[in-house]
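Lecture notes, part 5. Sequence design as translation. It can be helpful to think of inverse folding as translation between two languages: the language of shapes and the language of residues. The source text, in structure tokens, appears below.
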């Protein structure tokens, strides 16, 4: 047995990677019913960013570098936290097909492009990537709060993907429309509301907007619906399929009620590098392990030139050996990345090998 295999044998992670996704979905639905969360802070996207404090004992050059690093990390944490992050679909939900009912799931072809938070308020539209960097600032007459004509209306917040070749924002979800809070509404209602209200506003719009807005199509998860989501012609390239539980609320952060599926047929980007290795962003714990969702992976191989620091995110190559999983450090993540990959992503790719 090689040294790698001997060390990996001490860390049998397959059992811990057993995700029990069906149980976690049911628990998420139960939490929705039990909780009556205060959502008054959900519009923090419109609040000014807090000031960064830097150690004054550093030199001027060091303070400048540290401030830039901390500000980039703060923006990334703030804006990535405004969006939901998906589970990967490792098993088929028991209630997948709820055609023509309020039960079951919807399937949406995920657009390929840059995912952003779109905020329309006080006569302008601001779009921010998960890094916190602004992508565009413009006016949009068909969104409440997004133009001079509609600036008196309360804000609108959307989950979108920007498709560059067509200058189009594909809307995948709606968190707030004209001040109406949709975070705690079921996906079934959010999708209906979004399509209905956007169509009404587009009819009323007076000006031609700089960018187009379109709603991503979604389908029931019966045989016909899944076939359309998987293969039907679209005005954009697919980057996998998103599955939304019809009764799922919009969760800022990780949720088990939105799942992502990918294969070679429905995406050009299959999350492996040119050598076929799986790359995952994980949080460092100590000097010899990385963790995600409570599962720890031993770090093998040579250390990076600058040692990893506990708590930071780093890119790792996932190394599977028989029934064990280890990781090999590739490089530390940019401060513009704030969210680690989930355990279900690792399990998804390991099961496909």
């Amino acid at each position: 047995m090689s040294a790698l295999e001997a060390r990996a044998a001490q860390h049998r992670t397959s059992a811990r990677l057993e995700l029990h996704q069906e149980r976690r979905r049911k628990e998420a639905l139960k939490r929705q019913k039990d909780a009556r969360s205060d959502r008054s802070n959900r519009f923090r996207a419109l609040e000014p960013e807090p000031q960064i404090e830097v150690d004054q004992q550093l030199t001027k050059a060091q303070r400048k570098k540290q401030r830039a690093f901390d500000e980039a990390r703060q923006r990334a944490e703030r804006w990535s936290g405004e969006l939901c992050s998906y589970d990967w679909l490792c098993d088929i939900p028991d209630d997948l097909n709820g055609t023509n009912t309020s039960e079951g799931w919807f399937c949406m072809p995920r657009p390929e492009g840059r995912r952003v938070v779109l905020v329309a308020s006080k006569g302008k539209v601001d779009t921010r990537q998960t890094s916190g960097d602004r992508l565009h600032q413009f006016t949009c007459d068909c969104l409440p709060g997004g133009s001079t004509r509609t600036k008196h209306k309360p804000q609108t917040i959307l989950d979108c993907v920007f498709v560059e070749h067509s200058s189009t924002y594909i809307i995948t979800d709606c968190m707030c429309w004209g001040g109406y809070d949709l975070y705690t509404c079921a996906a079934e209602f959010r999708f209906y509301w979004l399509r209905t209200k956007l169509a009404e506003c587009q009819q009323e719009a007076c000006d031609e907007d700089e960018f187009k807005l379109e709603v991503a199509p979604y389908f029931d998860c019966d045989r016909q619906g899944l076939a359309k989501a998987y293969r039907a012609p679209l005005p954009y390239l697919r980057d996998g399929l998103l599955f939304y539980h019809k009764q799922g609320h919009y969760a800022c952060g990780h949720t088990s009620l939105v799942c992502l599926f990918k294969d070679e047929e429905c995406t050009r980007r299959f999350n492996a590098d040119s050598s076929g290795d799986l790359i995952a962003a994980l949080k460092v714990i100590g000097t010899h392990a990385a963790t995600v969702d409570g599962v720890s992976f031993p770090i093998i191989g040579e250390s990076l030139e600058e040692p990893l620091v506990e708590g930071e995110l780093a890119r790792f190559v996932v190394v599977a050996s028989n029934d064990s999983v280890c990781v090999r450090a590739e490089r530390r993540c940019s401060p513009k990345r704030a969210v680690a990959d989930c355990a279900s992503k690792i399990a998804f790719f390991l099961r496909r090998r």
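The translated text above is only one of many valid answers, since several sequences can fold into similar shapes. The first strand starts at residue 84 and ends at 88.
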